[in-house]
Design brief:
The protein has 344 residues and is α/β, with parallel strands linked by helices. Helices cover 36% and strands 28% of the residues. The chain has 10 helices and 14 strands. Nicotinamide-adenine-dinucleotide binds next to helix 4.
Length: 344
């Protein structure tokens, strides 16, 4: 069995520790954190796992693969060192904080012949996989549009804004479902509480197929919402991840344009058919994700969310925020107009 180590034992790391310990496909043998209190907590919980406070010492341990759940700004450096030491690497989402770093990481993984996987957990969740099957089978028809809402109160992050924290999930789901890269993207956001970190943002994407998508993300909302709406020519689907059961609902609803039989006849017909909620296994996505990582290494196959996939998510996010509206971007004449409107 492959021996796996985990670096980063803060908020998310303990969840990975639990599934690494639970998985029947690997042995969880080492853990690492620069914070002694985080390290001590996991060491006490898993006495057979060797604790390391130095990442270099951790890499010297007898390990086949490492999982990295440290802050995003450290992903590139730690993953490079892990790949260079011959380990297969799982990096929590997002792969890196820039396309440049993501691409270099992908190149390094290819050159060293090691598996690089990005932890886009939702891509392994049964509702998301089921919707992908419905889209691929043609049941939904051609996709008109998708809208995502991922909002709640907090958790405010110190290192990144809400786009790099929450929108990464929606963009990964979007790229997985559509299997194409956006042709155009833009976004708006606002830093309401912290000075220069957006806590609310809206991202829009257009795809070569014509499908359009919007993502609303916020750390500043009274309710927790995880809602996605998918509108196709044959079916409409809602996916609510906060629902304890019946997370996915498939609506046989739509609007068709028919040829009028007489002059002036209304040409639209509304279809109001059945609503179906498919059975979904209740397996934890994180466990499925870790098992997929191990299986990909064993079979020497590219994981579903390999380095390329992770790099594309980063690129799509950059594409959207690169065109974000900033006051400084407004041409001088328009800026005067904005100032004038504010003054009156
Ligand atoms: N897949 C998901 O659904 C999901 C959910 C939450 C967070 N995440 C991701 O997990 C990662 C970690 O997020 P978090 O919220 O746990 O952050 P965190 O800040 O709570 O924890 C990070 C930990 O890494 C440790 N660390 C920092 N530098 C280190 C180094 N060089 N070597 C070893 N340890 C080091 C810190 O001491 C800290 O304990 C991020 O990439 C985040 O996006 C994923």
């Amino acid at each position: 069995m492959l021996k796996v180590g985990l670096a980063g034992l803060g908020y998310w790391g303990p969840n990975l520790a639990r599934v690494l310990n639970q998985s029947s496909r690997c042995l969880f043998t080492a853990c690492c954190d620069v914070d002694p209190s985080k390290l001590a907590r996991i060491a006490a919980q898993y006495p057979n796992v060797s604790p390391f406070s130095s990442f270099d010492d951790f890499l010297q341990a007898d390990l086949d693969a490492v999982a990295i759940a440290t802050p995003i700004s450290t992903h590139y450096d730690l993953a490079v060192r892990a790949l260079a030491s011959g380990k297969h690497v799982f990096v929590e989402k997002p792969l890196c904080d820039s396309s440049k770093n993501s691409n270099q990481l992908v190149d390094l993984a290819v050159r060293s012949g090691r598996t690089l996987m990005t932890g886009h957990t939702f891509v392994y969740s049964p509702p998301v996989v089921r919707i992908k099957q419905l889209i691929d089978s043609g049941e939904v028809g051609s996709l008109h549009y998708l809208s995502f809402s991922r909002v709640n109160l907090g958790l405010y992050r110190k290192d990144v804004d809400v786009v790099w924290d929450l929108a990464v999930h929606d963009v990964s789901i979007l790229l997985y479902w559509l299997g194409e890269f956006p042709s155009r993207a833009c976004s708006f956001g606002r830093s309401c509480v912290q000075k220069s970190k957006r806590d609310v943002a809206y991202l829009w994407f257009e795809f070569p197929s014509g499908t359009v998508a919007s993502c609303e993300v916020s750390w500043l909302s009274p309710h927790k919402m995880r809602r996605t709406c998918i509108v196709g020519s044959n079916r409409m689907i809602t996916y609510d991840d906060t629902e304890p059961s019946e997370k996915v609902k498939i609506y046989d609803r739509g609007v068709s344009l028919r040829t009028p039989e007489s002059f002036g006849e209304f040409q639209l017909t509304y279809r109001m058919g059945d609503v179906l909620s498919p059975y979904l296994a209740n397996t934890e996505p994180l466990l499925l994700e870790i098992d997929h990582f191990i299986e990909s290494i064993e079979k020497n196959q590219a994981p579903r969310t390999d380095g390329y996939f992770g790099a594309n998510v980063v690129k799509a996010i950059e594409m959207a925020i690169g065109s974000a509206w900033e006051p400084g971007d407004v041409p001088a004449s328009q800026q005067e107009l904005v100032l004038h409107q504010e003054a009156t």
